[in-house]
Amino acid sequence: MIGTDVVAKAAPDGYTILAASTGPITTAPLVQRTPYDPEKDFAPVAQIGVSPYVLIVRKDFPAATAAEFVARLRAEPGKFSYATSGTGAAAHLICLMFLSKAKLDALHVPFQGSGPGLTAVTAGQVDFAVETLAATSPLFRQGAVRALGTTLRDGTELAPELTPLARLPGVETLDIGAFGGYMVPAATPREIIERLATETGKALATPEVRDQLARIGFQPRHRDTADFTAFLRRHREEFREVIQANNIRVDG
């Protein structure tokens, strides 16, 4: 949020650009006070990718597939627990979206960051989590946890073996991840935004850039200025809905 606020107050000359993401732009302003308004203080330039989220379970969890996982939680509501990187964090809200659509009840165990939460799942102290592919991939590829599916409806080219959770009955509309993109101060001239958007699109068309993004667990997904602007509105409303339904607030 500190870096985001710096860009909000920067000169609108195209030389200070925000590497925007779901946390500071979408979720944080919905659950707490922020020193900037994401809708009024920024102009979208382009989306560059999406970070897939993955449902992981402790390695001895009594379910081998996402369907078995849902059946187990439905059979024993409130018995199982899930770790997140904190109340109101993207991982918490995305997990709630999945649980809500699947009509599941589980105990939330918030941690201060994704690292401690994933450590708890790995140690078997917490039953499951929904976290980024970048954070979970080393764990499930080494067998420390098991991965049961991804939150992207079409799956992810970064881990094609992961089944979309949207294939589950009632979860068909789940298609969520953390976005990454570029934004600039709201007063930035249109011609500068267009130039930045054009160059971003060119860069994302190169194998070198796409490979670099993939290496950090970030699936390339380009949206131009208009599409990115529309996406941000939809993204915000998806999170607003789950926040209101669960009465989530980080501060007063």
Automatic annotation (TrEMBL):
Taxonomic lineage of the native organism: Bacteria, Pseudomonadati, Pseudomonadota, Alphaproteobacteria, Acetobacterales
Full protein name: Tripartite tricarboxylate transporter substrate binding protein
Pfam families, sorted: TctC
Protein family per UniProt: Belongs to the UPF0065 (bug) family.
Gene3D superfamilies: Bordetella uptake gene, domain 1, Periplasmic binding protein-like II
